[in-house]
């Protein structure tokens, strides 16, 4: 695999993924926050679609070569041999081209009321920079032939308002290098990924209708990670869900049931796990509101939101929305209405970091970049492998023994969990539990149908009463490296221990 640093010059004003910012501005290009400034970007999905259409429009490649480069409809396995990242403007000063726009009433031929606005676009002569990954040398050679060396390479158009001359760009390849992978050991590893492009994963399937909106969830199933690693040549014993997290190597849990925050405030989240179980064991009431003398009101607590690491730092996945249209390959225009997929809004997410527990059969080298989730043919779901933390058996067992207190320990489920008899599975008596249930939607490719599994939700807690610590820890380790309970192939059954 090779990685190319590519520069894009705007040959005319540019609007990509425009959005309304205020009544004063009609539309502006997609932006990314960098410190205090908004940096214009060209999303990977928009660039990939524009280049595909350019190659077709100018007949620079046949459909087979286009599909080999950019992928085709039919699933993530057809993602193609070229993977794009988002492109950012190299300069953050003097990039805008503001123009006053009006709307004409067709019948009266006069200006419509309340339709005077400033159109904000990226000006001509702005340079964007980003990286493109090529899975083989043939893909790089074909890309150069079509988009940089062809006589019409300065006619590539992207974004909105192309009919009035907007969106003309030129591509230059600045440098190319071979990609390097990272070493990963057999056994338990904490894998940290960096979001390069937003990811999208189906939430409730497509029953909602792709013509309107494709919903997504803010984490990635363990089955998707397992498949990506298997495609890279690994024998994967177990892979958990990928969750947003705060930093490298910190495992997180979605919405734990033992973390609470004061309502209507941004005060620090409180870990009430120990207090809850202590009061429940003593059969005493637990008060969820306290009289605050400072403000003469009650301080009330509610369940914390988002994702939380075991050291109680918060993390989140930021939602994004993009509009997609389907193009008729023959007419090069929008598909006729009445067909599926003419126009739909896609929900996607991005996070600073994503982590998961991965258990491998043998050592190997993981690629620098991997693709996960859906819509990979549109450029979604690209991640960079940032860090791999190997955790050996002795370290895990030592850490767990320190969590056992007075013969009791809390098992906190990081992923979904399903088993008819947890007490028998863990080989210890259940002392108490604080769990909730959640419907988990999966697609079974063997049966070619969707499954709805009602499982214990991530963040749930079961407290076990232990007689023999060593025996219990040894049993736990076997469950950890294989995943505990049923549906392990979907990432079910990953857990951590907490002291109470």
Q: Which CATH architecture of the largest domain?
A: 2-Layer Sandwich
* Low-confidence segments: 205-210
How would you sum up the global shape? globular
Q: Could you estimate the helical fraction of the residues in percent? A: 10-25%
- Domain count: 4
Annotated CATH topology of the largest domain: Alpha-Beta Plaits
CATH class of the largest domain: Alpha Beta
Strand % is 35-45%
Round the Cα radius of gyration to an integer and report it: 26 Å
Total number of strands: 35
- Count the DSSP helices: 8
Q: Span from first to last CA?
A: 49 Å
- Helix/strand class: alpha+beta
Question: How would the blueprint of this fold be written?
Answer:
Blueprint: E1 2-10, E2 25-27, E3 31-34, E4 37-42, H1 44-57, H2 63-70, E5 82-84, E6 87-89, E7 96-101, E8 117-122, E9 127-134, H3 137-147, E10 156-157, E11 168-178, E12 182-184, E13 187-195, E14 213-214, H4 222-231, E15 236-239, E16 243-245, E17 252-254, E18 259-262, E19 270-271, H5 273-281, E20 289-292, E21 297-303, E22 307-309, E23 314-315, E24 318-325, E25 343-350, E26 353-360, E27 364-366, E28 369-371, E29 382-391, H6 393-403, E30 408-413, H7 422-426, E31 429-434, E32 437-444, E33 449-456, E34 461-465, H8 469-482, E35 495-498
Parallel strand pairs: 2-8, 14-25
Antiparallel strand pairs: 1-9, 1-11, 3-4, 4-6, 5-9, 6-9, 7-8, 10-11, 12-27, 13-26, 13-29, 15-26, 16-26, 17-22, 18-19, 18-21, 20-21, 22-23, 24-25, 28-29, 30-34, 30-35, 31-34, 32-33
